Amino acid sequence: MGLLTYSPGRTRVKICGLKTSADVDSAVAAGVDAVGFVFYPPSVRAVSPNIAAQLISRLPVGVDAVGLVVNATDEQFAAIRAAASITLWQFHGDETPERCAQLAAGEPWMKAARVGTGFAFDDFSLQYGQANAFLLDALVEGYGGGGVPFDWQGIPQTWVSENAPRVVLSGGLNVHNVGEAIARLHPCAVDVSSGVEISRGVKDPALMAQFIQAVRAADAKTSSQ
Ligand SMILES: O=C(O)c1ccccc1NCC(=O)[C@H](O)[C@H](O)COP(=O)(O)O
């Protein structure tokens, strides 16, 4: 169904920063809706376009292949698009709305909001109104993948109500806090990287399965209310 199919009571799940076929097979077996590939060389989770293409070939129909870039050049972006069948772009740097639209060229894309104190949610959603989704992440060094949550209480309830169908909640999620996040915000989807790793950049099959089970438990609780 893909990551951005909004269905209250069926929170979608993206697992980001996959680097091996074992990672991909475990995430698919756990029931993931999207897997993210980091095309940002400074990241320990970075993969090449050719490696990503090999990993994407293992995905069943319906699981999104998310291509994550940070201020990519035209050449870098063209190399990714030429090699890998990305179904959803994630712009996680300082890209303007115009730059995102130019690179995405009509394909689905989401913009990461790096949320620090006093973040202007209304300004962000107005500025990036063309995006298919907003990925709300914590403001961390190195642009993302920090493993720390931001202050969910700082998101205005009116903003959440208006935008929940295209919110992907991210930043420091794990098996212990994802249930609260879903109960509080009812996002279209949740995204996790550090929270399913046994060390930075090393995914754990058990943690991936437990994370998705925790999402399903939270959804069941929502549906019973
Ligand atoms: O994951 C990275 O290393 C990364 C590096 C630079 C920019 C973005 C990056 N990840 C983006 C993601 O979508 C992560 O899943 C998101 O930041 C949440 O990460 P975590 O807090 O570790 O769950």
Automatic annotation (TrEMBL):
Q: Which GO terms describe its molecular function?
A: isomerase activity
Matching Gene3D superfamilies, A to Z? Aldolase class I
The record lists the membrane-crossing segments as none
Record-linked InterPro entries: Aldolase_TIM, PRAI_dom, RibuloseP-bd_barrel, TrpF_fam
Keywords of the record, alphabetical order, are: Amino-acid biosynthesis, Aromatic amino acid biosynthesis, Isomerase, Tryptophan biosynthesis
Top-level taxon of origin: Bacteria
Q: In which pathway does it act?
A: Amino-acid biosynthesis; L-tryptophan biosynthesis; L-tryptophan from chorismate: step 3/5
The EC code for this enzyme is 5.3.1.24
The leader peptide range reads none
Q: Which residues form the N-(5'phosphoribosyl) anthranilate isomerase (PRAI) domain?
A: 13-214
Catalyzed chemical reaction(s): N-(5-phospho-beta-D-ribosyl)anthranilate = 1-(2-carboxyphenylamino)-1-deoxy-D-ribulose 5-phosphate
EC class: isomerase
Pfam families per the record? Answer: PRAI
Amino-acid biosynthesis recorded as keyword:
yes
The UniProt entry, under HAMAP family, shows: PRAI
Q: Which family does it belong to?
A: Belongs to the TrpF family.
Q: What is this protein called?
A: N-(5'-phosphoribosyl)anthranilate isomerase
Which species is the source of this protein? Polynucleobacter yangtzensis
Q: Which gene encodes it?
A: trpF
